[in-house]
Design brief:
By secondary structure, the chain is mainly α. 31% of the residues lie in helices and 8% in strands. The strands form 3 sheets. A two-stranded antiparallel ribbon has the order 1-2. It has a two-stranded parallel ribbon with strand order 3-4.
Length: 209
């Protein structure tokens, strides 16, 4: 079973030094993409002999450059003081090199192995994905039932419903398992309510045994 939760954004300040730093990151990623793939073995099969469940949880994050005052101040006040406050109680990585940004690009990277996915989002161009084989379809061939759950209710957003079905998910859920009274916000359902409903759905699934 594969689980995903969708809703996120990335904020990058526009100071010259920050942009120069970001460009250096991109250059390092391009070089790594050229040098690393020849060292990797082609793997097209999923080996599972004991029937383990597989969970993949996609979490959204904020660029660390907007935290801890890195984004700068205005008249002595930090631009994003509330994010600083929240980050003080969470996990903050001062430097992390990712292969892409944004929800739909990240799904293509995570599930289809597309490195440095910073071009046009492939969720809008599924025909370009045809030569690829993504993890959900590989798991299907190994006997898995594949389900995707999103905490955001609009499957048409970023064309994700069609994109995820093409990847090989047997079922794609965009909030249809939620109940009246569950907390909901502009960008999706409350995490606690969302995961509660996900596991209720999985327990009643015909393949949950």
């Amino acid at each position: 079973v594969l689980i995903g939760c969708v809703c996120g954004w990335v904020a990058i300040p526009v100071q010259h030094g920050t942009l120069l730093f970001a460009l250096k990151q991109v250059h390092a990623t391009v070089r790594a993409r050229q040098e690393i793939p020849p060292l990797l073995t082609e793997v097209n099969t999923v080996d599972s002999t004991v029937g383990e469940d597989v969970f993949i949880v996609q979490l959204e994050s904020v660029n660390s450059l907007v935290l801890h005052g890195f984004a700068g101040t205005h008249k002595g006040t930090r631009f994003l003081p509330e994010l600083d406050r929240i980050a003080a109680h969470g996990v903050s990585l001062p430097f992390l090199l990712a292969s892409t940004i944004q929800t739909n690009r990240a799904q293509a990277s995570l599930l289809c192995g597309i490195a440095l996915n910073i071009g046009a989002p492939l969720s809008y161009a599924i025909d370009r994905m045809t030569p690829l084989r993504c993890l959900p379809s590989l798991l299907q061939e190994s006997g898995y039932d594949t389900q995707f759950f999103s905490s955001f209710w609009d499957g048409g957003f970023m064309n994700l419903d069609a994109f995820l079905e093409w990847m090989g998910f047997d079922e794609v859920h965009f909030g249809n398992m939620m109940r009246d009274g569950d907390a909901v916000y502009q960008w999706g359902f409350d995490d606690c309510d969302f995961y509660k409903r996900v596991f209720e759905q999985l327990r009643t699934s015909p393949v949950s045994d």
